[in-house]
Structures
1.
Amino acid sequence: MSASILEKIREVRHQISLFEKLYTRPAGSVMLLAVSKTRPYKSIIDAVECGQRAFGENYAQEALEKILALTDYDLEWHFIGPIQSNKTKTLAENFDWVHSIDRSKIARRLSEQRPSHLPPLKILIQVNLDAETSKAGVALSDLEKLANEVKGLNNIELAGLMAIPIPGKGVESQRASFHLLAQARDKLLKQGFESCQHLSMGMSSDYEAAIAEGSTIVRIGTDIFGPRN
Ligand SMILES: *Cc1c(COP(=O)(O)O)cnc(C)c1O
């Protein structure tokens, strides 16, 4: 096994539990999603051997090949990349979670294409917190509308919100962005979207701030597998 992946994954887990303590979050309330996009099978298997089960992928075709090659392991697959509508069937049939929902058409297709023998697909709505940029995600002002459109769909469950804020400098400015997402989630919970519990926020460079603001899923690539090419 690659010593470096073992060491890095231990270090990330250690940091997560320190941040849980530091910011008075319950122990174990933050899930580690290992972002394995562009990484070879070998690296994923190394991570599995360190007890990692949940993996995040950005490209449907690359992910499908990995999922099919790794069926011997009991893994949980999260799709976190931009979604093309001709890829929804692949996602509906092979993933457990999709974090990057930003339009109702995609949600409808995922619900229609989710096989009936599988549990509902857990979806997160991606919110664009930096409205002036052309990034993916719905504007905060359109979030409630999309949440309502998703609500009636049978084979998917609104499990929370996701965001990729512009990287802020320093924990305090990073916290300000993540705080907006946490507030939006709290508002949806108050409005009766009971299943909307999760906050998928925090990457290698900003997961301390995300955990401080209530993240329940941190998406970590570089700090586990090293720099991407
Ligand atoms: C690549 C990626 C990550 C992981 O980023 P790192 O900085 O390598 O930890 C997390 N989330 C999304 C949506 C990504 O595309």
2.
Amino acid sequence: MNKPGEEPTDRLDQPNDHLAVTPPKKWAAGVPAVVHALEYSLQQTSPLRTGVDLLTMNQVDGIDCPGCAWADPSPGHRHRNEYCENGAKHINDEATTRRVTADFFRTHSVSELSRQSDMWLNHQGRLTEPMVKRPESDHYEPISWSDAFGLLAAELNSLDSPDQAVFYTSGRASNEAAFVLQLFARAFGTNNLPDCSNMCHESSGFALHETLGTGKGTVSLHDLHHADLIFLVGQNPGTNHPRQLSALEQAKLNGARIIAVNTLPEAGLLRFKNPQKARGVIGRGVRIADRFLHIRAGGDLALFQALNLLLLQAEDARPGQVLDHDFIRTHTSGFEEFAAHARGLSWDDVLAATGLTRARIEQVRDDVLRSERVVVCWAMGVTQHKHGVATIREIVNFLMLRGNLGRAGTGACPVRGHSNVQGDRTMGIWEQMPDSFLDALQREFGFDPPRAHGLDSVNSIKAMREGRVAFFLALAGNFVRAAPDSAVTEAALRTCRLTAHISTKLNRSHTVCGRTALILPTLGRTEQDVQAGGEQFVTVENSMSEVHTSRGRLKPASPLLLSEVAILCRLARRTLDGKAGIPWERFEADYGTIRDRISRIVPGLHDFNRRVARPGGIQLPNPVNEGVFPTAVGKALFTRNTWQPPHLPDGHLLLQTLRSHDQWNTVPYTPNDRYRGIHGSRRVVLVNPDDLKELGLTGGQHVDLVGVWSDAAERRADDFEVVPYPTSRGCAAAYYPETQVLVPLDSVADISNQPTSKGVVVRLEPTGASPS
Ligand SMILES: Nc1nc2c(c(=O)[nH]1)N[C@H]1C(S)=C(S)[C@@H](COP(=O)(O)OP(=O)(O)OC[C@H]3O[C@@H](n4cnc5c(=O)[nH]c(N)nc54)[C@H](O)[C@@H]3O)O[C@H]1N2
Ligand SMILES: Nc1nc2c(c(=O)[nH]1)N[C@H]1C(S)=C(S)[C@@H](COP(=O)(O)OP(=O)(O)OC[C@H]3O[C@@H](n4cnc5c(=O)[nH]c(N)nc54)[C@H](O)[C@@H]3O)O[C@H]1N2
Ligand SMILES: [Mo]
């Protein structure tokens, strides 16, 4: 029996009421995209707010789109409308005119809210005043800001150790807010700074850092435009990075070939109609992928190993003509060991893991041999697998063999998710920041930051479960829905003495409470931010390491909102009570004073205030592009990677949990996924028709998804409708976060500890067939 307020999460959405399935689309963006964006926008907000937002979005001195982290073209090369359909949806979801007031919480108890779907909670609108849920109550009630900070400070100061506190950050938070949060956490005494990146590109960070000495991508928009071969591996740009399609279109016009590697034939990989150009509006658009490799889930490591073997063999046949010996000799270490290891590869294993033919992989080798400038882009289809780190290391091997690093038109391109997820890391939001950063903090502020590594997202949940964490504060995000294993995660959060969320909109994390819970409502990026020192702007860093300003224009959703920076500075002041000698009050009044401090701590951001004011902002240097590889040995490392195929018992499928076209991470906007032809329901599971035949199932049938994991605990997401879909054999797909309940907390990528959200072993049980 669940206690009130502890309803399980797997049945929050109305099951399959109105599912309609149409054939998947073969192209992305174009006119319908713009129409759909406006449709959603006008349901949320007024034509005036929509217009103000969209016209300033991604313009120099405007708002940075709160959607993905894709880079803007340089000033002077931007369209009048430099946004995409989905960016418009995200921004208007924030600019909504709907409001969640104290009355709302009087009407709806926490238990009642915990039975509502993610979509319903989001649709209630913007949070408007600070609220508290007291220990014996089932309702949130208003609390003054001052009392809220008092409560938080008292709780923090009563902990036995600072390490009983956890501070989570989601990647929409600005650089300034992130810097203040990590400074506060470290001055308080803990490195417990988990973030959404732990569940997103952590595998990329570890692999790139180890092999290249820097955790960031090496590619600029210019490189992408001038590459002659681009790989898109495990990403769905038509939905998740629509502005990347413009860059790919440009690359194609310059003569590039594109190879898409995916378990699904995503619309955005096939053809693009650019809504910003007449050609896109009326024509057939541009074909994106010249080659589509319909790979099995988790097969990318084997694919790149096979390509590397084929390149070594091509070099054997034509010595001195295939590999870039100069690059390998000058800049790398470990080539001989790598080559010996690569030569031991078994083709049987490769073909089984990838589901591809050898001839198909050889065609790709030929594409590579014809190319001089190669870029590899990747996202969650690579990072969220057990072998995510090894796969990216192998991609680095692949790039290095032909010197495709550090030259114009080449490089490694992890395509980041949240608009400032990369900046938050630059600002020190990481449980494992290196000593160089901590030393700089110590020099600047004169306190001794803790040195022991803190807790990441998965380990925070484990520590809560073991009673080692009592306090949880989140700067943005929806931790309870972003984290795996919903039942385990929710039970863990409920053991906390206090949970608090700095949020713009209501979500499930507000309904899964510690003994005491606080909602701290904040300004969104679209809104004007006026402090004692005048109107403020914030800064963000995109996927290509460009740091620029973002300035909101709209009137705040409520006069009671505080900015993220103000909330964190006041909390720090109240908790530390002058102990660390940090000028929190000045920071709050004038964010420029925060940037002055950042400029003395973060390499590459010297003279931050002056340089970021220039149109286009600051390009952070990437050592790789200067021929420097700051690894332990001062060279880029070739690595030897091994793998085991996932154990897939008979009658089971490997499930990936992914995004629809109409959602922002944990927040579905509508139940539709237009490009995949799914309308009216998110409780669907996409399965290859041949697998359905083998499993004795048919399209339209209702099934429970049953997770299979070594702990033998039953993880069940019930009542999903089967949709026959051209996913690769043995693989299924269903939406996150509804399937979060199936991802075991212990199922993580090797080394990065990132949940394996794209590799969940499940069986499909006809609904109602189970005895339970
Ligand atoms: N509209 C919108 N935009 C977003 C987001 C959003 O929710 N909505 N989220 C943002 C965030 S935080 C992120 S991290 C990014 C995520 O961007 P993506 O990584 O594109 O997001 P996913 O929906 O998780 O899609 C993963 C893709 O990988 C493929 N895939 C799955 N497994 C494999 C595999 O084993 N091999 C290969 N080759 N392919 C595989 C899937 O079929 C799918 O196309 O998007 C960002 N942008
Ligand atoms: N199964 C599965 N799990 C996954 C993934 C997956 O593909 N499959 N993807 C993972 C990935 S890539 C990511 S990045 C995480 C995402 O995890 P999170 O970043 O934690 O989740 P979001 O859904 O982006 O958070 C949405 C909430 O952020 C708040 N918010 C929005 N804008 C602002 C703002 O400007 N300021 C503040 N303070 N709050 C704001 C709103 O209250 C909103 O409800 O999920 C991960 N989890
Ligand atoms: Mo992400």
